[in-house]
Each structure stands twice: as structure tokens, then as C-alpha cells.
Amino acid sequence: MCLFWGVKIVKSILNTGKVVAAIILLNGCTPRFKVAETELSETRSEVNYSNLDSWAAHPSKADLSDSVPQPLRAGFNRDTTVDVFFVHPTSYSEKKLMGWNANITDGDLNEKTDRSSILYQASVFNRYNVYAPRYRQAHIFSYYTKDTVNARMALDLAYEDVKKAFEYFLKFENKGKPLIIASHSQGTTHTKRLLKEFFEGQLLQHQLVAAYIIGIQVEPGYFSELKPCADSIETGCFVTWRTFRRGYEPDYAAAARKSLVTNPLTWTTDTAYAPDTLHRGAVLYKFNEVFPLVNDAQIYKDLLWVSWPDFPGSRLFRRKNYHVGDINLFYMNIRTNIDQRVEAFKRRLSKR
Q1: The pTM is what?
Q2: Could you list the residue range(s) of the whole structural domain that residue 84 is in?
């Protein structure tokens, strides 16, 4: 009952599908899954990233990351001189666990991913070349189970796919262009490792416009060289947040490791209050509508607190964990900020 109600509300109001519905139910709701005894054999086969079908988003094919909300279409133009590597969140969340890792040839699962995170999240970055690999994502159960050995193996396998996709992207696609790294939820779990392995202390760090690593805690000290962005135009840095209703602190927050936080209305890491007048627009249940002035924002401890979002139908939205809207609640603020950082990056590059 709890899972169904949460999915129904998330899907009907925020319309990001069931991608991270199980995460939003952390507030007093424990997921229950039936675990299959055997894994799907397909999850054992390596993914071939030279095949466009292995990408949820790719500049060489039409996909939902290309979608532009109707109010933004006038004058829209693409800048192909910058690449975005986006790692999508969990969409493998069915009650029956048919293997610890998803099968990337599962058409229903891929459609679920595409119509949720690729449409509502990856599209934020589509002024530039968006690459989003399909990968053998770990089941959402991996974040809750007491079977930490299998959970870690599932997450490691998922990361190996992300890593392989990134290596392919660097070798055959990027060709030294400025680079934005972006992710949400499980995607951020893997992207944190990717940044540590490929960017810190590496030449690739000089190509980094910024990393938008959202929806999972980024512990102070996790990175030795990469730093949180101090303002809206700093480059070679990262931004991160997890969104909750003002006044609410989830039960797990006290036990979880602390996290760095960025305020996406000010792009600073201080605790100053940012009023809703700074909110440029959210893209919610109707993709072709942009809703401005939806919420304020303020950093509280290791969380981003916002007011009750104000948009048509929001009176029905009772949840206090806004994980599912971490990106699309701030759609226009993020979209504007990407352009600001790209412009700053190119300006600094021209002075070298």
C-alpha cells in the first residue's frame, strides 16, 4: 500500500515515473522485495558501447534528451563544442528482484528510464552534446538490503559499465572538448567514483567545466582535489544537493555520513536564505510548461531545505522527501547555470 501510494503520487504530480519512487519512500516506508534465486543470464554479458542501442542518449540518434520545453524553443540553438556525460538514476525497482543487476536489453525498463530521467533530467543539459549510457544498474534493493556483499557486487558491476562507457566516450567521441559530468541518485554513486578515478590529479580535470552530482551525499573529504563550486561561474568544481521540505529531517540523516551541499538558487555553499524570487522555473508533470517561483531554498546541515512547492496540483503532494525532483524542480536554474559556467570556461580557456 505504501509503495503504491508513493508511486502514484510521484508519477501523477512530478511525472518522473517510478525511477526513484522507492527512494522517496524512505520517510516511514521500508521497501519489500521478493528475491529471485538466480540472476538473468543477460546481465553477465558485457555491454558494447559502439552500439547506439547501448546509449539512452547520444548526439548521433534522436532520443528524449533532445526534448525542449515549448516555452524555450524560440531561439533555441545547440552548442556542439561541449559534451555532457550523464549517468541516470535507478529505474530498476520492481518488487520482484529478477537478479541484482538490470538487463539493458529490457525494452520496458529502457522506456521507463527514457520517459523519466532522460526526459526530465538529461534534457536540462541539451544545449550541449548529451551522452547517457545504459548500464546494468543495481536494483534499488541494493541500497536497503542487509546482504551487503551482493549489494556491493551489484553496484560494482554497474560502475564497471559506467566506466567502460566513459572510456569509450573519451576515446571515440569527446576528442578533447570541454566536459560536463552530470548524474542523479545511483548515477551519482557511480559518478563520484568516476571523478575520483579519471579526474582528480589527471589532465582530464582541465577539461572539466563542472560536475552536477546530485541526489546522493558527497562526503566532505571524499575528493582530495575536486572542490565544491563557490559561486555560479567557477569551473573545474562540483555541485551537489539532496532536497527536502523545510523543517523536515529524515530519520536516516543522523546516521548517514555528512554531505556537502550547494544551493541551486544561489550556487553557493553558505546557509543564506534564497527566496523563491530567485527560482527561474521547474519542469514538472507537464513537460512543455515551465513553472517559475515554485520554491525557495536554504542549506540546513547536510540537506537542501525548500518550501512546499507551489504549482498546480501541489496541494496533493504531501511527501517531504523531494528526491524525485532534485533536478527538475530547479530545471531552469540549472539550465541557466550550465551556460554561465560554459561561458566562463571558454573565457578562461581563451586567456591561457
Answers
A1: 0.90
A2: 2-350
